[in-house]
Amino acid sequence: MMPLLDVRSLTKTYGGRIGCADVSFRLYPGEVLGIVGESGSGKSTLLNCLAGHLLPDAGRVIFDTRAEGPRDVLEMSEPERRMLGRTDWAFVHQNPRDGLRMRISAGGNVGERLMAVGARHYGEIRAQATDWLGRVEIGETRIDDRPSAFSGGMQQRLQIARNLVTGPRLVFMDEPTGGLDVSVQARLLDLIRGLVRRMGLSAIVVTHDLAVVRLLADRLMVMKDGQVIETGLTDQVLDDPQAPYTQLLVSSVLQV
Amino acid sequence: MTPMIHVEHLAKSFTLHNQGGAVIPVIEGAGFSVRAGECVALTGTSGAGKSTVMRILYGNYLAQGGSVRIGGLDITKAEPREILALRRETLGYVSQFLRVVPRVPTLEVVAEPLLALGRPEAEALARARDLLTRLRIPDTLWGLSPTTFSGGEQQRVNIARGFAHAYPALLLDEPTASLDATNRETVLTLIEEAKAGGAAIVGIFHDLEARARVADREIDVSAFAPGRAA
Amino acid sequence: MSDTDYNFAYLDEQTKRMIRRAILKGVAVPGYQVPFASREMPMPYGWGTGGVQVTAACLTPADRLKVIDQGADDTTNAVSIRKFFEKTAGVAVTERTAEATIIQTRHRIPEVPLTEDQILVYQVPIPEPLRFLEPSEVETRKMHALEDYGLMHVKLYEDISRHGEIATAYAYPVKVEGRYVMDPSPIPKFDNPKLESAALQLFGAGREQRIYAVPPHTRVVSLDFDDYPFDPSKAPHACALCGALDSYLDEVITDDAGGRMFVCSDTDFCASRRGEAA
Question: CB-based contact (8 Å) between B88 and chain A?
Fold first, then answer.
């Protein structure tokens, strides 16, 4: 099987400081990869390099495009990368404000990606927006409300709907449950898991919350000081960690 | 015929890096096979490593040496995605604890292994209803998340989920613990049905009667303790 | 020539050449906003400094200039600018659309179709059609470069969802020659069909330092949805003075008792109709 994303020796430094160093992995269709590590471990740098928000110093990010097969994303032109960013890729920010247009209605937020790829029928755009709001459990009556009138959890669900409406194949998530109440987190995790399974999505989830990756991720990558120090099946890494740092990380989690 | 589960020269130790780098050997030189339609019980005193062996068989613990072939795949060397595929299609595991996403209704929890295989939703839900009925989970609870259930109810949901798909290889960790006589009987029947269906089963049974009834052989894991094996 | 000490049409020759280069680039890339080094003009921003600079760069001594504000030749802004060029350039002026070679306008396109011998110069307050949707100039320029115009339709979507129709009544966004989305300046959407014209149309934004152009006979399409097509409607009345049914109307309040009348916003159009009728 062809990997959907093939990352080779990705390196990013900030001056003399290492952001992430020599990261390689393959992501297969339908897989969810969790990247864990504490603040400053390089996990967000890595995610931003993968998603094209940051330019890495070295390495390759090869994506299996629909039309042309495997292409190095870093060698694509800006228009190609942007097109990818609003069709096959999606990015869910930790703070929904970074991923939503706060002055535009929920329906407009969901419809934007459709209009960006050429949808020009208001009724159809609105029907799709309604459908997607339903899928993320936002009532149809809220379609014309602005996200500023929504709770944090609703905003995050709206951001997910806005991202998934064009049927992407790869979703990047940066601490998708960060800053949410625990009960809201559970609901969101359940939602993401259901969508991932039903749509056959591949996802890369960056988080420092081990409970989140246990529920969401098939595989885990543990990062420290910009390096990948351990990878494996999620439950194996969490239940039988090998690296000293991973053991410390796992044993530091408070048990409920 | 090659056995469904084939373990050779298996070794496992834990290195506690944050406790002075202490190395604790747990298993050494373990080897056994389980054929299709056969049920093998792991025995040994508490702490002998029964659960560790089960977890290695499931790919949950890493082995330090040897090989574990299940359905032809050596899981000690397999890629995560190969193990995931194996768990989806071939290898089932009923653990002692139910671990699910909060808020997911019981019926979906039980149907999930079939949905993950791409079976039609109607078929998966029908199978889930059937199992929950047999295990006497009242249908008023099906729409609720099992996280709020009692220990015994959770255990039965866990069993229903483990038996939803007819895995060719099945690991059972104390499947009859904390069950009343009627439900215990149901679980034993489920195990017998799985055997008859050709499943290779490895189980831990503290319930001696149950063990005697379903197990064809016993393997004493004490024999795999380090220093004991050849 | 004029008898003042000003250089012809106020601006120095170097500046006019710089502006002409921007205009030529604008003509070459229809709808694209060309940056230019806007000068301080002897009038406040918002009074047409961009349009005045473009007009200054286009004027020749043989030109005949017309200046309108909201369609009228006799408002303060129009009169001031006309006088400004009478004084600094000594050019002939007119209020007759058909007689003018250059028409500087604020917020209207004359009713009478323009010809290939005419230039229409627009005063533009905010040249960026995406400005209120995306505050970053860096980002909007990228969006233009990449034809990433989904956001523009989001605005129209918002209109329909809130008002049941596209409520944008002026500065209605258009796509020029199938490429750039352009703000036609705050003309009423009624005027949008007239953007496809035989005349050269130049747009100058002084404060924002941008010039753009629609060359003669360029395709200009108003953005819309398949199920909510563009509708260049106007007030459903006839002009109270000349009786025209097909001209853009101003509503004039005549007393404190709710009295009002609708009259042509294009004063020359209205006057010539009445002259013909008389």
Answer: no
